[in-house]
Specification:
This protein is an alpha/beta fold. The chain is built from 14 helices and 19 strands. Helix 3 packs across helix 10. The two termini are about 30 Å apart. Bound molecules: 4'-deoxy-4'-aminopyridoxal-5'-phosphate (PMP). The site of 4'-deoxy-4'-aminopyridoxal-5'-phosphate has 15 residues, from helix 4 and helix 5.
Length: about 450
């Protein structure tokens, strides 16, 4: 671990909001919160917050407002679109649609697929990329969890062979459970060779890795602002315009309609916009879009490759620390050494994962996540468990080598100081060797310290 300390120390984390926030421990002491749940939502970049604060007084109603601030806001909204297009390295003619988040983006895409589209997705996807396709007019083929990237490519090849008509492949860029990076360009090549299209769920990839739509040759990409250091309620669906323009608007309403006329026979005829506006009915989230654009610029200026290299050093430090604890089993689909972003899930033998995560929070001020991470089939596959996760956390289960039914996830990114990773590794070691110092019980489905009984 000492060899990596020098280079990590040389490269500082990007300033994020909440970096100095102190939280109470169960003992009553206070410590600076270690936010290690970036895969769920990353803290806002200070730069994004500052940009939003500087713009806020000039905020005005966008689109068709006659006033100065309306026009300024409309310009900034459209410039935000252009900044996202540049960040994603879109092709000529590609469109950026602002949505609420990745889930919304993929549901939007599902709503515009031509009738009869066959969708192909691995069962290992996050629910946001697994479920939107289960709707009338579409069929879904869920491919079994592959054991290697090569097997994933072969499985897709096999699934697409001989198929015809409109088809869409949906693939995640980096798993929200294992952090493993998927062979997106290779899958895109297979999809296109068979005449299918492909959408990339970049919710976990974009915050950690350069995403070039042009180089990966994917048809669409979706991501969320709140995982990209811009938590203002906006997300993105970007890519090919033709299917978007051919479909009914995702939401019907103002902004999506160019003209609405009442005919002599009493009917109402609507002419919908083409382009992004068609699927952005209602008043758009200008601040959300502006914040995403600010994050895109900030990450680009800091250097996505530099940030990724720093993150890899933190990951190596984390993995080396966890490797010293034989009770810790890191979850992986593709095996050790496969490229991964700063997301890692594990189980600890003899521990209920909810209990472990609760102790990390209550006794060390460390925020991680426990559960099945909205990827139930994947986590169950990795744990070799088909049953429901247990609801009680108080009694550690699995002490006799029984399997765990849920997992613990630690995730980090551009704002994470080395100290947070070190504190986490120390906490894991202490909890495993000495046990929790407090007792815990389940309250409203959550594992919480039992402040009535002190276990020590
Ligand atoms: N895809 C992946 C890979 C994710 O990790 C998540 C969020 N955990 C989503 C999609 C959904 O993102 P959101 O909740 O922002 O819609």
């Amino acid at each position: 671990m000492s060899s990596s300390s020098a280079s990590v120390a040389a490269c500082t984390p990007l300033p994020v909001l909440g970096r100095d926030v102190e939280v109470p421990l169960v003992t009553g002491e206070k410590v600076v919160y270690a936010a290690l749940d970036y895969a769920a939502s990353a803290p806002a970049l200070q730069r994004v917050w500052d940009d939003v604060a500087a713009y806020a007084p000039y905020y005005g109603s966008v689109h068709r407002g006659a006033g100065y601030l309306s026009q300024l806001s409309t310009d900034l909204f459209e410039q935000s679109r252009a900044a996202v297009a540049e960040f994603l390295d879109l092709r000529e003619g590609d469109q950026v649609v602002f949505t609420r988040a990745t889930t919304d983006s993929l549901n939007l895409l599902a709503s515009v697929l031509p009738a009869g589209t066959a969708v192909f997705a691995f069962e290992t996807e996050h629910h946001a990329s697994l479920l939107p396709w289960r709707r009338a007019g579409l069929t879904v083929d869920y491919l079994r969890a592959p054991r290697s990237p090569r097997q994933a490519v072969a499985a897709l090849e096999e699934a697409l062979r001989g198929t015809e008509g409109p088809r869409l492949v949906c693939v995640t860029g980096a798993s929200n459970v294992t952090g493993e990076i998927w062979p997106v360009a290779e899958l895109a090549e297979v999809a296109h060779r068979h005449g299918a299209r492909i959408v990339l769920d970049a919710a976990q990839l974009a915050p950690h890795h350069r995403v070039s739509v042009r180089e990966l040759d994917v048809d669409w990409v979706a991501f969320s602002g709140h995982k990209l250091y811009a938590p203002f309620g906006a997300g993105v669906l970007a890519g090919r315009q033709d299917w978007l323009d051919a479909a009914e608007p995702y939401l019907a309403g103002g902004g999506a309609s160019r003209s609405v006329a009442r005919e002599a026979d009493g009917s109402v005829v609507v002419e919908w916009h083409q382009g992004a506006a068609r699927h952005e009915a209602g008043s758009p989230n200008v601040i959300g879009a502006y914040a995403i654009a600010s994050a895109c610029r900030a990450l680009t200026e800091a250097g996505l490759d530099t940030l990724a290299a720093r993150e890899q050093e933190l990951l190596a430090r984390l993995r080396a620390g966890l490797a010293e604890v034989p009770e810790v089993k890191v979850l992986s689909l593709f095996g050790d050494g496969h490229p991964q972003v700063g997301v890692l899930s594990f189980v600890v033998s003899g521990w209920n994962s909810s209990h472990f995560a609760a102790a990390l929070s209550a006794e060390y001020g460390i925020g991680v996540r426990d559960g099945l991470f909205c990827a139930h089939p994947l986590v169950r596959h990795l744990l070799g468990a088909e049953e429901e996760a247990p609801s009680e956390c108080g009694a550690p289960e699995g002490r006799d080598g029984e399997r765990s039914l849920n997992a613990i996830r630690v995730s980090f990114g551009a704002g994470t100081p080395t100290e947070h990773v070190d504190r986490f590794v120390t906490a894991v070691k202490e909890l495993v060797s000495d046990g929790a110092r407090w007792s815990y019980r389940t309250e409203a489905g959550r594992c919480v310290p039992d402040t009535r009984i002190h276990a020590a």
